[in-house]
Design brief:
The complex is a heterodimer of chains A (435) and B (458). With 435 residues, chain A is an alpha+beta fold. Chain A has 15 helices and eleven strands. Chain A has a six-stranded mixed β-sheet, sandwiched between helices. In chain A, strands 7-11-8-10-9 form a five-stranded mixed β-sheet. Chain B has a six-stranded mixed β-sheet, sandwiched between helices. The chains are: A alpha+beta (435), B alpha+beta (458).
């Protein structure tokens, strides 16, 4: 085999990644629907997203899990169309569709060859205007959702931990109920609840439509007007969550045990501000420095060097309302949770006091920037970015500042947000132990 | 309110693709480059023509083991340092192998790409194959096989591969068997790497945010010093594919929850002039609204899902239709599946029927070419199989040009006749009925099944 000199670990200068801004048409129809159109004619394909500003936090009292159940019902047909119409309009022409429900939104999306755009706009408007839910399909989908709960939350190892963290970390805010909800409350729901929920939240002034891809903007605007424009806006105001989580002043620790916990684990959840807050970018860089990938501080220290954990990560869960910064550790076999948590505490102390080195900062920024650039490749990636920015920050245009925002984060910024938020009195700890 | 009926689709539009340019470096490496400067991202894929088809029967799984080990450490840095270097660049670096080739791929943002490409060069030319890593990856591969063998659908596909190809180059499992993996060690890994990872039998595709001249310069700078070994180039195996020994193979697996059914036959190679007719014919059968799922799931409720697949390779690949059914309905599902495949000839799809089936093919293509990794991979596949690179830009037109007569004529030659049947499940529930309906049936108890044997053991 021929040889050539091997360079040392590549040290790259702080890289200047520049992307062209995403240009879009943004308007609000008379009925309140916000329509954002991004033209990219390279590939004859188009992504359609319809996001409703209703998520787990908006579930009616005693009806947790309702927004997510509702997501399922939106595939059950309308007064004009058969069940699974959206599936046929997408899968049968070379596209796909899906939906997700988060704490803050329910987002429906499709990707289809661009000559099918008008049909999908018609179908999305149709299910906003004339959803047809009956007792039979309501009961069926409720069972499907409860089955999903059994599979994802009960059966999956550590499946309940996220639910427990939200429940204990929030004293007041409805984020404490999570998204999947509780089977008891879902079982108690009636068809009347469903009809009321659709009337309350599925209305044009609570929807954001984003279309990204290959189309003519004038033609698409006419279709948006024709199909969405005539849908009436109900008179009552949309109910909004007004609850404000009070500042936490003392550490709270909870211990839970479950059968599907193979190795003891813990999550430390710190309150952080909303996604629109100026500290959001520094918190994401902090997340990357601490917990993204095998070269992160937590992995290197807890998993690789000290071998006290099989897994250790950080997640800045930035939401429309104040979210959580989670540090999670899963013990290595034979290691006491207290020892794994002590190692975690040492890393928290270090990041609160010692700014990350230049190479570490470059690594974090580069990882975040690369991920933004990759998301920009697809129409569906661009559409989702605009949805999130509109919901979380009220302005789709902020996506064009994101790269610069992350690249501007300094080591001092990282230390400052770590000092500000990673304080013991600001955290809730859930220890999750085997039976 | 909205219009009460759904609008019709408009006329489809075609994709515009960057034009690929190619050169051969002095060391024989074929380099394909394309420029698409919409985003600061560059991707590369290096394909060598050594995959599982060049392995010896008793070394099945060797090419997969080599590929898995490439990213587990080099002579310059260990597995963890390599992961750290990749992370630091925001890059993705992967390796894998298949029937006809092994490949390495890398992508990164424009400023990071030259460094990421140097990492590709490092894992390509200076893998450590550290004994500890060889052992770790081999052990993991062996334990992964236990998962595969517990899945009746996966077993049925591997049995179908053996029934179709016997002891010819596509017959043995790409992932190997417990016995073949257990016998492989560092020496054979290094041997395979030395022999098949060579510039005079490889293709490099680089594309994205750079000019093609810069792509060639980068390729030359990193890989220009890559030298071929003295051993002559291996002539790819052209062994004749024997006809199936048995038409129906039943693997008796009483603990299976459901019975897996595969109906298949050896069909066409990637370079065949029938290629586009073949993928459209497969699309008539495949998908939710494809004929197989319509008959098996929608009309008869025999299964949650059923579909067809066509695997095209350098030599003729496999066409299969498959589903998972209750043991007691295995015979019905077999009859229906065979009838559906025959329907391509008996009740051929009309040109109107083909409009939406062809759209499923072109729609998947559009999604693939949204990313530079997708374009890079498609060009690498064209190059690997000797298909002119310009064909990629003509893909949609070629698919659209297939008409009903071509689908019927192709299916009559290459999908319908000479098919074989594989069933993996609780044979006590269906074997005797199968034997009454079909001739030439062989039942193999699961414990005696040997995927390492061209005749499946037993």
């Amino acid at each position: 085999m021929n040889r050539k000199p091997v360079s040392a670990l590549p040290t790259i200068p702080a890289i200047a990644i520049d992307v062209a801004p995403i240009s879009y048409a943004d308007r609000t129809l008379a009925n309140g629907l916000r329509a954002i159109l991004v033209v990219n004619r390279r590939v004859p394909s188009v992504a359609i997203n319809v996001a409703y500003r209703v998520g787990g936090k908006d579930d009616p009292p005693g009806r947790s899990g309702f927004a997510h159940l509702f997501e399922h019902l939106m595939f059950k047909g309308t007064s004009r169309t058969a069940p699974e119409t959206i599936d046929r309009l997408t899968e049968d022409v070379g596209g796909f569709n899906n939906a997700f429900t988060s704490e803050d939104i329910t987002n429906y999306y499709e990707v289809v060859p661009s000559n099918h755009l008008e049909r999908l706009l018609w179908a999305e408007a149709d299910r906003l205007a004339s959803l047809d839910v009956n007792a039979a399909n309501f009961a069926t989908e409720r069972d499907v959702v409860i089955g999903e709960y059994d599979q994802r939350i009960l059966a999956e190892p550590y499946g309940m931990l996220d639910e427990l963290v939200n429940r204990e970390a929030y004293a007041v805010h409805p984020y404490r109920r999570g998204v999947i909800g509780s089977p008891d409350e879902l079982s108690a729901a009636s068809l009347d609840d469903v009809v009321a929920f659709h009337a309350t939240y599925y209305r044009p002034d609570n929807a954001i439509l984003v279309v990204s891809g290959d189309f003519d903007v004038d033609e698409a605007s006419r279709w948006v007007d024709a199909y969405f424009g005539a849908i009436p806006t109900p008179a009552p105001a949309i109910p909004r969550v007004a609850a404000v989580e009070p500042e936490q002043t003392a550490e709270r620790t909870f211990e839970y045990r479950a059968a599907n916990v193979p190795l003891a684990a813990a999550e430390e959840a710190y309150h952080i501000p909303a996604a629109s807050h100026p500290d959001a970018a520094a918190l994401e860089v902090l997340e990357t420095v601490l917990g993204a990938g095998r070269s992160s501080r937590l992995y290197t220290s807890l998993v690789y060097d000290k071998q006290v954990a099989t897994n250790a990560n950080a997640a800045a869960d930035l939401r429309e309302h104040p979210g959580l910064f989670g540090l999670r550790v899963t013990c290595a076999r034979g290691v006491a949770l207290a020892d794994a948590r002590a190692a975690l505490a040492a890393e928290v102390e270090r990041v609160r006091t010692e700014p990350p080195g230049e190479a570490e900062l470059i690594r974090a920024r580069t990882q975040i920037a690369s991920s933004i650039v990759r998301s920009r490749q697809t129409n569906s990636g661009v559409a989702l970015m605009l949805v999130q920015s509109t919901v979380d920050r009220g302005d789709p245009g902020l996506v064009n500042d994101d790269l610069a925002r992350y690249l501007a984060v300094t080591g001092d910024d990282v230390v400052r947000v770590a000092e500000t938020y990673l304080r013991a009195e600001n955290r809730t700890v859930v220890e999750y132990l085997p039976l | 309110m909205t219009a009460s009926t759904i609008p019709a689709p408009a006329a489809p539009r075609d994709a515009t693709l960057p034009a690929p340019v190619e050169r051969v470096l002095d060391n024989g490496l074929r380099v394909v480059a394309f420029s698409q400067r919409n985003l600061p991202l560059i991707a590369a894929q290096l394909v060598v023509r050594g995959g599982s088809a060049v392995e010896r029967e008793d070394e099945a799984g060797l090419s997969a083991l080599v590929a898995a080990l490439l990213t587990q450490g080099t002579t310059a840095r260990g597995a963890t340092e390599l992961a750290a270097a990749t992370d630091a660049l925001g890059a993705r670096l992967d390796a894998g192998s298949g029937f006809d080739a092994s490949l390495l791929s890398v992508s990164a943002t424009t400023p990071a790409f030259p460094y990421a490409f140097a990492l590709l060069d490092e894992v390509l030319r200076r893998p450590a194959f550290a004994p500890r890593e060889v052992e770790r990856v081999r052990t993991k591969s062996i334990s992964d096989l236990a998962l595969t063998y517990a899945n009746p659908g996966a077993v049925a596909r591997l049995v179908a591969q053996r029934v179709a190809y016997g002891g010819s180059p596509y017959g043995h499992p790409v992932a190997g068997t417990v016995a073949t993996l257990a016998a492989l060690g560092r020496d054979r890994v290094a041997w395979f790497h030395e022999r098949f990872y060579r510039p005079d039998d490889a293709v490099l595709v680089i594309g994205g945010d750079l000019e093609t001249d810069d792509a060639f310069a980068l390729a030359d700078r990193e890989l220009g010093s890559w030298r071929a070994p003295d051993t002559p180039l291996d002539v790819p195996p052209e062994a004749a594919i024997p006809p199936p020994r048995t038409r129906v193979v039943i693997v008796d697996k009483p603990d299976a929850a459901r019975t897996a059914l595969v109906v298949g036959r050896v069909s066409i190679e990637r370079g065949s002039p029938d290629y586009y007719a073949a993928i459209v014919a497969a699309a008539v059968l495949h998908g939710y609204s494809g004929r197989i799922n319509q008959e098996i799931r929608v009309k008869r409720g025999l299964s949650y899902g059923a579909g067809a697949a066509l695997s095209v390779r350098r030599m003729p690949g496999l066409f299969t239709a498959s589903t998972l059914i209750d043991h007691t309905r295995a015979v019905e599902a077999t009859d229906v599946t065979l009838a559906v495949i025959r329907s391509l000839v008996d009740a051929p799809a009309s040109d109107d029927d083909l409009v939406s089936r062809k759209a499923t093919v072109t729609g998947a293509f559009y999604r693939a070419i949204e990313t530079i990794d997708g374009i890079t991979g498609s060009l690498a596949e064209h190059a690997l199989y000797g298909v002119p690179l310009a064909e990629l830009a003509a893909y949609t037109r070629r698919v659209q040009a297939v008409d009903a007569a071509a689908v019927r004529e192709f299916a009559a030659r290459r999908f319908v006749p000479d098919d074989f049947i594989v069933l993996v499940g609780d044979a006590s529930k269906f074997a005797s009925e199968i034997e009454q309906t079909y001739a030439d049936v062989r039942v193999i108890p699961s414990a005696q099944l040997d995927l390492g044997s061209p005749t499946l053991g037993g």
